[in-house]
Amino acid sequence: MTPYPSNMDLLQKSYSYGTSPLTNSSSQPLHVYLFGASITQSLSPLIAHILFRALHAKWTYNLHQTTSPAEFTAKLNEETYIGGSITMPNKLTFMDCLDDITDEARVIGAVNTSFIRLDDARRRHIGTNTDCIGIWETIIHRNPDDRYTARGKPALVIGAGGAARSAVYALWTWFGASEIYVVNRLQSEVDTMITSFRSNIPDIKIRYIPSVEYLEGISMPYLIVGTIPDYPPKEEGEIRCWRITEAILKKQTGVLLDMCYMPSPVTTLLKMGKTYGWAVISGAEVLVQVCVAQQILWLEREAVPEAVEEALEAVRVRVEARL
Asked: CDD domains from the xrefs (predicted)?
């Protein structure tokens, strides 16, 4: 298990890719963009506004609904572009548009953030993954003791996409899970993910859970991270995935975090977890911590703690009113 992560360590590591492109630029009208599909209800602009305002940055956070690598590249080349947030379904497909990616992004195999560093005055767009640090920060912000409570116990990830890979990385690397179970509609997607991780982390233990019956005789997870869209299951694999998840939730209690927060931050998974007595955490809170890490990379300044709490409260109000 590697040392616990720090946002400021993340910033210092970013300079290995070049020098800063910023010179008192927080007073300039620069632009950050969110790239993704179905993002009109995203909470990111609200959170970014709170964080930028606290540091007196006159930057704007803009939604750019696209899945086109060409459109993404065009934005990267705009003079006023200073950074980007990359969400579904672009976390894997936009990687090739960037000049380089960090070690975390390479191991995870997905990016959710781009930032700029200079190499001989040339702008280089670097991709990284702050979803993993967002998961870490969110769980220990709620209960710092979970960094110890979760260690040496199995964990569960629901899904096998880009967000799931971030969850696997955080649970194994920082929470010290003994093994990571994965529930997903297709075993082939999990097999691909396992192969990718083992090429970078040979000793990682990831196990696909194929059925409810398979749960007999294995230890139940303490931490669960959901990463799948909150839509009613239709296909056989999707229905099986929900049945397995519910069977696990019934067996014991722990901490359940759902990365999904759209179209509503109150997901079916969170409601189910609360029904069975789990401590539930909305993906909207992860989004705040992700935005904090991104802002530190972009502005190169530590977030104002009061602004972080203001952003967390803003999203919690939206969640708890519906939960």
From this structure: NAD_bind_Shikimate_DH
Q: Using an 8 Å Cβ cutoff, are 127 and 114 in contact?
A: yes
Pairing status of strand 113-119 against strand 122-128: antiparallel
pLDDT in tens, 26-36: 678 899 999 99
What six digits make up the tokens of 109? 């195999």
Report the C-alpha gap between 141 and 145 in whole angstroms: 10
Q: Which two tokens stand for residue 142?
A: 């709620």
Asked if residues 303 and 133 have their Cβ atoms less than 8 Å apart, the reply is no
Q: Report residue 161: phi and psi, to 5°.
A: -90, -160
Mutual angle of helices 283-299 and 305-320, in 10-degree steps: 150
Distance CA 269, CA 287 (A): 17
User: CB of 211 within 8 A of CB of 244?
Assistant: yes
191 neighbors 208 (Cβ within 8 angstroms):
yes
For residue 285, the SS3 value is: helix
Give the chain's domains with CATH numbers. Answer: 7-129+290-321 (3.40.50.10860), 133-284 (3.40.50.720)
| Pair 260, 297: CB distance under 8 Å | no
The confidence band for 127, taking pLDDT boundaries of 50, 70 and 90, is very high
Residue 189's CB is within 10 A of a number of other CB atoms, namely 17
Model confidence at 1, pLDDT cuts 50, 70, 90, reads low
Q: For 174-191, what is the mean pLDDT?
A: 97
Rounded to a whole number, what is the distance in angstroms from the first to the last CA of the chain? 35
Q: What is the number of other CB atoms lying within 10 angstroms of the CB of residue 68?
A: 13
- Alpha-carbon distance of 170 to 122, in angstroms, equals 33
Q: Which whole-number Å values give the CA distances from 98 to 65, 81, 114, 282, in the listed order?
A: 19, 14, 8, 30
